[in-house]
Amino acid sequence: MTKSVAGELAGLQLPVERGCPFAPPAAYERLREQAPINKVRLTSGGEAWWVSGHEEARAVLADGRFSSDRRKDGFPLFTLDAATLQQLRSQPPLMLGMDGAEHSAARRPVIGEFTVKRLAALRPRIQDIVDRFVDDLLAADGRPVDLVRALSLPVPSLVICELLGVPYTDHDYFQSRTAVAVRRTSSPQDRRRALAELRAYIDDLITRKESEPGDDLLSRQIARQRQEGTLDHAGLVSLAFLLLTAGHETTANMISLGVVGLLSHPEQLALVKADPGRTPMAVEELLRYFTIVDGVTSRVATEDVQIGGASIRAGEGVIVSTLSADWDPAAFENPAELDVERGARHHLAFGFGPHQCLGQNLARMELQIVFDTLFRRIPTLRLAAPVEDLPFKTDAVIYGVDELPVTW
Ligand code: HEM
Fold first, then answer.
1. How far is the CA of 177 from the centre of ligand 1 (A)?
2. 283 pocket-lining for ligand 1 (C-beta < 6 Å)
3. Which domains does the chain have, with CATH numbers?
4. DSSP, res 81
5. Cα gap 314→325, rounded to integer Å
């Protein structure tokens, strides 16, 4: 049975500050206990369905009757103001916001770049990159060192730059603009400017690659489209925009939080150190535990749908809380426990269904290499500040920490 949420649960403002600071907000658990799908009122205005159950979240995300098109009426855009929405509507959509055949047409040509087999060829280079930043970390003059600047942010940024053929020397430019774009506390004007600047920067980059191709993913996409006679400049800009932003900000936050998670659970870290064969499973558990991209998996119903006991009408917004789903005790026993041996691969940190993260194999590989290398080369690594004092990104669409002082 579904209930309209009243009192303290109404006016849910997203993203919501987590508790403790790892656990989902207490309101999430109360919502899930009431029903796996509830109606919530959003502080930003209007109502939406809130999906907290793991089974129901997978059902919604795999169901073609729910649209990802942010331009459709009823789509729960809780982090955007009207003017930013207008800006978004005037631009060609990102793959993330496409449906059906249009989405497949955008995704299919790039899938081959992100297969496990294809990415295996990148492993030695990623290992080199991680080693280089760990060398610099060890050579740092003073301690504590901020791990975000020294490792978490540069590693995935350099990796995605090399893959896409983006000059790494521009990293300050795109990192700073992405950071502004994903913060709720950025003013709407700043967010719009950051998004426009990023898009203009990428537009220039694609224009240069169209005349001077290199050996990189974007140049290969241009060549492929030329061959098929379908060169679509705006579509390539959208693709590059999504890969560059999604490709560094998410993994960077996950590296930092993974380190915090392991360092604050020494018995779990000891298991990983004792047998690096456990690292892949530990990465899955850390992905589940933090589920850093929460609520971005929103949809709008295009038909009336009965799901998880809820009667969702066409045109109604649906927010799938992947964080809540990944702490659903029906899917993960004792979800509040970080257990690197649990086998958490069915988590929804990368989403589910047709939009499931395109870069997940790359992210997994980067996380595995970083954790293995960091704890092998600096076995005495420890936090240089109490966990409670770390500046967690409670206002960001992608959870993380702004700074991570470490020492050894
Ligand atoms: C730990 C790191 C990452 C996390 C937690 C993450 C999370 C997600 C999630 C939850 C979605 C699904 C959105 C939806 O269903 O609406 C998604 C989609 C996507 N991600 Fe990631 N991501 C990560 C890393 C990456 C990387 C490294 C790349 C690129 C190299 C990437 C590229 C994409 C793209 C292109 C999509 C859109 C796929 C589509 O719409 O078909 N992500 N990601």
1. 18
2. no
3. 7-407 (1.10.630.10)
4. -
5. 23
